[in-house]
Write a sequence for this structure.
């Protein structure tokens, strides 16, 4: 079937049910939990007790956190790409899709994110949805790819400036719907907002969800106790004592 005609064909009820369920199961794969378990650690008992890439990186090291982020992003991207191909909307402009196809595609992306944050394999716990959400949005070519990529750049800049992953994640999540709105208006004026309405609505809901998942971090940021990354550890008391002893001897 031609992609343009497929994009104009509403999905069946079976497709509507199957795609989000499959995406939820893919997203629920407990990546961080299994990586930590491979090193003999229960991630739910250390650090922030969150089953995500940030807590894994703080516990096992930066390379483990990066690996987990990539795998979690793939959990979001894979079902979105496959569902986009099945629905015939991958690569299509928002105005060429039926509303039902657009909403089904978006429901699939949202289900993958929910699966990551509420995984049945670890007692309906999980991460905060940032990595999986990024993968899901960037795979929604071309509607949300550029907004998600810009959000990633913003995330990197904020982490470098403020050293707080939580703050960067929340701001980047909010930036996505803002970028969608700007891109829609730039492409077709305010009529573009109508075409992009489903994507604007769902990206806004995802942003609200990400901020809500970080509510404990918000309290710590306000109290000045939020953990920071990319900082050199202070010299230990033992090292200080050894250096002092050396200076005395010399």
């Amino acid at each position: 079937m031609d992609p343009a005609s497929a994009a104009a064909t509403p999905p069946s009820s079976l497709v509507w049910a199957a795609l989000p369920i499959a995406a939820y199961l893919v997203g629920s794969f407990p990546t961080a939990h299994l990586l930590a378990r491979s090193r003999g650690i229960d991630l739910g008992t250390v650090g922030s007790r969150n089953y995500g890439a940030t807590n894994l990186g703080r516990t096992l090291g930066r390379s483990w956190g990066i690996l987990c982020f990539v795998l979690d992003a793939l959990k979001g991207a894979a079902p979105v790409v496959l569902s986009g191909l099945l629905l015939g909307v991958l690569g299509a402009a928002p105005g060429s899709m039926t509303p039902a196809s657009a909403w089904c595609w978006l429901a699939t992306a949202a289900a993958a994110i929910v699966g990551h944050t509420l995984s049945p394999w670890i007692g309906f716990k999980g991460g905060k949805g940032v990595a999986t959400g990024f993968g899901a949005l960037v795979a929604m070519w071309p509607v949300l790819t550029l907004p998600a990529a810009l959000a990633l750049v913003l995330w990197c800049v904020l982490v470098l400036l403020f050293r707080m992953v939580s703050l960067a994640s929340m701001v980047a999540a909010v930036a996505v719907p803002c970028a969608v709105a700007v891109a829609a208006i730039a492409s077709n004026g305010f009529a573009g907002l109508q075409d992009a309405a489903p994507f604007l609505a769902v990206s806004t809901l995802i942003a609200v969800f990400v901020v809500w998942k970080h509510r404990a971090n918000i309290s710590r940021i306000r109290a000045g106790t939020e953990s920071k990354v990319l900082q050199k550890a202070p010299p230990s008391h033992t090292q200080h004592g050894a250096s002092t002893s050396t200076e005395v001897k010399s």
